[in-house]
Amino acid sequence: MPEHKHTPAPWLLEGRTVYALNADGFNRFCAQVQGAQTTPAELEANARLICAAPDLLQALEDCTALLSCYCKEEHEQCMRDARAAIARATGQA
């Protein structure tokens, strides 16, 4: 697996704020999800998605690595989509 440039997991969620802590428990960064034309429920859902991003990226990389051995032609579009999402997330797109 490639080495990631982003802050490693775990990322923590508190309300609509996402935190990433270092090994000593200190804040490395935080991101607050906010918007003027968005419902509170949508903002909270967006914050949950951002918080899960490192885990989602790792899972998608693991799945594509495993499934590349078994991928059939009819599933190739799904694999291309997964690889494109990984490229966007890692700055390779």
Explain what this protein looks like in three dimensions.
It is a single chain. The chain is built from 2 helices and 3 strands; from the N terminus they run βββαα. The chain is an alpha+beta fold and 93 residues long. Strand 1 and strand 2 (17-21) form a beta hairpin. The protein starts with 10 loop residues before the first strand and ends with a helix.
Helical proportion?
A: 40-55%
The assigned structural class equals alpha+beta
Q: Averaging pLDDT over every residue, what do you get?
A: 89
Shape by Cα distribution: globular
Major beta-sheet overview? 3 strands, antiparallel
Strand elements, count: 3
What's the assembly state of these chains? Answer: single chain
| N- and C-termini, Cα separation | 17 Å
Describe the structure in brief.
This protein has 93 residues and is an alpha+beta fold. Helices cover 46% and strands 16% of the residues. It has one domain.
Keywords:
alpha+beta, 93 residues
Could you outline the blueprint of secondary structure elements for this entry?
Elements: E1 11-14, E2 17-21, E3 27-32, H1 40-67, H2 76-90
Antiparallel strand pairs: 1-2, 2-3
Helix pairs in contact: 1-2
